[in-house]
Amino acid sequence: MDCLTFISELVKNLAWPLVVFSTIFLFKDQVSTLLGLIMKIKYKDLEIELGKKKLEEMQPDARVDLRKIPKTKEEKEVAALFNLAMNSPVGAILAAWNRVEAASLKRFERYKMEFSSPPQIGGLLELTGLFKSAVTNDLFYELEHIRNLAVHGREKSLIPKDAIRFIELSNRLIEAINRK
């Protein structure tokens, strides 16, 4: 057998397994979903019964709950933040902090206070009486600390779950800031 014949036979024999494995690799999520739906495998005399999973158990309910669709501008912003958190936790933290700063600026306007730089936010919020509650005070400074870590790249282990928690806590702080 010469070299060209050998290569030709090798390609002929390996072509279909390569196609099958590359297809499975490319569509691994869909294949795993389909495999999860298989209840029984039968080959000649061999029969294997697998766990019975219904399609409803494999995928979340596809029906849209109209009550959960964001309607207001603020709800749309928060939904966008949650989406951003999945791809860029640091970006979501910074965007959520920008919302805290924007709410703070509105509060300063209500109290007719001048604002010149972000480091002043905590002190000015304290002057407006926001930090009468120790919880609100601690919440603000903890969020500010996490934001600073994210900005200066010191917190490289941020994951989407951390960003989502930050967004939830910043929303709670924004509600407190917006109260009179």
Describe what is shown at a glance:
This protein has helices at about 5-25, 30-35, 55-60, 75-85, 90-110, 120-125, 135-150, 160-180; strands spanning about 40-45, 45-50. The protein has a two-stranded antiparallel sheet with strand order 1-2. It is mainly α and about 180 residues long.
The run of helices and strands is HHEEHHHHHH
Rg, please? 28 Å
Shape: elongated
State the distance separating the first and last CA atoms.
89 Å
Mean pLDDT: 79
Q: Which fold name is given in CATH as the topology of the largest domain?
A: Four Helix Bundle (Hemerythrin (Met), subunit A)
Look at the structure and give the CATH class of the largest domain: Mainly Alpha
Label the structural class: mainly alpha
The percent of residues in helical segments reads 55-70%
Overall tally of structural domains:
2
Q: Largest sheet, if any?
A: 2 strands, antiparallel
Tell me the layout of helices and strands.
Layout lengths: L2 H24 L1 H10 L2 E4 L2 E4 L5 H4 L14 H15 L1 H22 L10 H7 L6 H18 L8 H19 L2
Antiparallel strand pairs: 1-2
Helix pairs in contact: 4-5, 4-8, 5-7, 5-8, 7-8
Quickly list its features.
single chain, mainly alpha, Four Helix Bundle (Hemerythrin (Met), subunit A), two-stranded antiparallel sheet, elongated
